[in-house]
Design goal:
Layout: E1 10-15, H1 19-22, H2 37-52, E2 57-64, E3 105-108, H3 116-123, E4 127-132, H4 143-153, E5 161-167, H5 169-187, E6 190-199, H6 203-215, E7 219-221, H7 223-243
The structure holds zinc ion.
């Protein structure tokens, strides 16, 4: 069923919180990134809770998924610029504990084709992860991942609020914030970056990226404020439901 004329949702959008980035022994460790896991965990836990109570709170996001000596695929072009990381099927490609639902995750891989039935079953899971083979989820050279992103975004009610967490602030997070800001420009709603639940590689580049986000009307909040937003939207939804009885 198409979701039309439905109430706006809150979508916690978590970017690339994978072991190769967040473990000190990871292939492409982002220094200090382990410090944000607690905040991400609080936001996700709250979102899972509200979602299971029937409110329109979703957990979407992305994961790097690269190919290296993978049968049927060329090596990922990203390995010209970065060390080999997040290779499909390796432990480092998995999410860090605390940043993924224990059992109810739909992974939508850019490496696979899905029937409409398969896609809607995956996108109905408590947490939905879009995998990608490039830093920019909407890089037009990667048709399947771009298609998967737009296909998933069709399930989001107009006017929804996106609460963005994860890594790396000035690279993949920035690209996904841009993609979400484009969606908001066409469909209404807002994008909120949770400043104590993201982590950068380079502070100067992060400042530039955040100034660009601000220019696009992206809002900044800390984890407690973001938790209040989830609470507020769920409460309002509950109030609206009661009123409509
Ligand atoms: Zn990568």
């Amino acid at each position: 069923m198409e979701e039309k004329n439905v109430k706006p949702a809150v979508v916690v959008w978590n970017v690339d919180t994978q072991r190769d980035f967040m473990e000190t022994s990871g292939k492409l460790y982002v220094p200090g990134s382990e410090a944000i896991i607690h905040n991400i965990n609080m936001l996700l836990h709250d979102a899972f809770q509200k979602g299971s109570e029937g409110f329109k709170v979703k957990v979407f996001g992305s994961a790097d998924e690269h190919t290296f000596k993978t049968p049927g695929f060329p090596d990922s072009v990203e390995f010209k610029d970065w060390p080999v990381h997040c290779v499909a099927g390796t432990p480092g490609q998995k999410h860090m504990p605390g940043t993924a639902h224990m059992t109810n995750v739909g992974v939508i891989s850019w490496m696979k084709d899905y029937t409409p039935g398969e896609f809607s079953a995956l996108s109905a899971k408590r947490q939905v992860i879009l995998t990608k083979d490039s830093t920019d989820i909407l890089n037009p050279a990667f048709e399947k991942q771009v298609w998967n992103f737009h296909r998933l975004m069709k399930t989001v009610p107009p006017g929804s609020t996106f609460i963005v967490t994860g890594i790396v602030t000035e690279i993949c997070v920035k690209h996904e914030v841009d993609a979400l800001a484009d969606w908001v420009a066409n469909n209404g709603g807002r994008v909120i970056l949770v400043t104590d639940a993201v982590k950068e590689f380079d502070q100067d580049k992060m400042r530039v990226a955040m100034a660009e986000m601000r220019a696009r009307k992206v809002m900044f909040a800390n984890t407690n404020e973001a938790l209040s937003v989830i609470k507020w939207v769920s409460k309002n939804e509950q109030a609206a439901t009661v009123k409509n009885r």
